[in-house]
Amino acid sequence: MKKRYSICFWVILTMLLVAGCGQPSTNKSPDSTNTQNQNRDQQLEVLTINLDSKTVAIPISKIDSVKKYLDQFDSNERANELKRVETTTFTSKSGTIYSDIRYGCGMKLCDHTLVQIKNNDIKTLPLHSGSIFMERAFSPDDKYLAVLLGRNEGTDVIRHSVMIIELDSFALAELENTDELINLTSSDFSIPILSMSWENETTLKAVIPDTKDYTFDTLKNWNAGENKTKEILLIVK
Predict the structure, then answer these.
(1) Which runs of consecutive H residues, i.e. helices, occur in 141-191?
(2) Taking the domains of the chain in order of start, what are their residue ranges?
(3) Lower CB count within 10 Å: N or C terminus of the chain?
């Protein structure tokens, strides 16, 4: 009888040990849980832009430059930086939505990414960093968009750069080479552009100061003087 009880005891004990070994561990380290929660929260992050009476939510994961900027911060700082993001939103004649997304802003200057939303497809294009979004103009046929950015030099002088974007590919348009092309389109912001307008489907006219050079003192004196100007044509190839 004792022998039978002893055999039953060992059989039950063996079954319990086998069952215990077969159970997967459900314990997770705090670091693993926090990482998973952060990844989930980042996947849910959206930037809301306003257009007339409606709002559009853009997943941050779709705006690579903004996501990389936010990835520098911990969760609390990240949330605050996301709140500081500024936008300027507009549409083309065909109804395609565009928005200048500004982040990492100082007193005036920001980094920029231009977003295009067309048929629920989102494309992005980084613009010149450390600048002010000044103006935009669509070509008459809606194939190109000219974006004017500015950078202030004190309170007396603002220099500009214009970026012409081919909207179908959403990339910078190729322009014909002219003497003033580099000065007007580079990220160095060397020349003030007083105004810009499309002359036709492929030609953008820019009005700039007519001066011997573009040093700070020359431009400051030009601002205080008779303000002679000249026109420069930027032609898309």
Answers:
(1) 181-185
(2) 45-126, 131-237
(3) N
Whole-number Å distance between alpha carbons of 171 and 15 = 67
Nearest CA-CA partner of 88 in 110, 65, 118: 110
What's the pLDDT tens digit per position in 205-218? 999 999 999 999 99
Q: Which residues make Cβ contacts (< 8 Å) with residue 70, sequence separation at least 6?
A: 45, 60, 78, 81, 82, 103
The residues, any chain, with a CB within 8 Å of residue 158's CB and separated by 6 or more, are 132, 150, 151, 152, 192
C-alpha 34: how far from its chain's center?
28
Whole-Å CA distances, 6 to 1, 2, 13, 18, 20: 9, 6, 11, 19, 21
The SS3 of residue 148 is: strand
Short-list 80, 97, 81, CA closest to 89: 97
Lowest mean pLDDT segment, chosen from 69-73, 199-203, 212-216, 223-227: 223-227
- 3-state DSSP assignment of residue 162: strand
Q: pLDDT tens digits for 43-77?
A: 579 999 998 888 999 999 999 999 999 999 999 99
- Cα 46 to Cα 120: distance, rounded to the nearest angstrom: 15
Spatial contact of 234 and 160, defined as CB atoms under 8 Å apart:
no
Query: CB count, 10 Å around CB of 121?
Result: 10
What pTM value is reported for the model?
0.81
* Pair 118, 83: CB distance under 8 Å: no
Closest by CA to 162, choosing from 180, 192, 184, 136, is: 184
